[in-house]
Design brief:
- The protein is globular, with a radius of gyration of 16 Å.
- The protein has one domain: P-loop containing nucleotide triphosphate hydrolases (Rossmann fold), CATH 3.40.50.
- The protein contains eleven helices and five strands; from the N terminus they run E-H-E-H-H-H-E-H-E-H-H-H-H-E-H-H.
- The two termini are 26 Å apart.
- By secondary structure, the chain is an alpha/beta fold.
- Helices cover 62% and strands 14% of the residues.
- It comes from Haloferax profundi.
- GO terms for molecular function: kinase activity.
- InterPro entries: P-loop_NTPase (IPR027417).
Amino acid sequence: MRVIGTVGLPGSGKGELAEVAREAGIPVVTMGDIIREECRARGLDPATDHGKIAKALREEEGDDAIAARSLPVVEDHLDSNDVVVVDGLRSDVELDRFRDAFGDEFVLVSVEAPFETRAERLGDRGRDESDTDVESLKKREERELDFGMGEAMDRADVVIENTGTLDEYRETITRLFEEGPDAVAEANP
């Protein structure tokens, strides 16, 4: 059993890592989906109220609220899978929650890329306003860093610098799943 968590700023490549996992038949638990579900439960639009609800959940249920809500989903997948990916940790508190639950079987991967590269990727993606507006992106990053994302990134077990081609990145991710974190850590000094 292994649980692989991802952390990284918007546009770094966490979603692509999750997509490669899905293509390999590895279940992915997306922490943002927990927030989107809560937005809908409160009658709010996830596209416009995601950040507000993420903050509200943490205030109402504790800083590890999204991780706590994700744990049962991860555990369900582990009943029938050797590897599960948890997409999108946002804080060191969430990291602690997963490490407490899974011990040495939890591996955190920090996906990193320069701001300009990430901004360009997000502009191409154009999923929401903060993807296409540089100032909105900076505010979004500031909010996520305020949650403790920088501390979680600093404590990652593996760092993947996603600055090459998409094919190179996908090959690195595939190696992570097939050969384990050590193979990727060695390839990304």
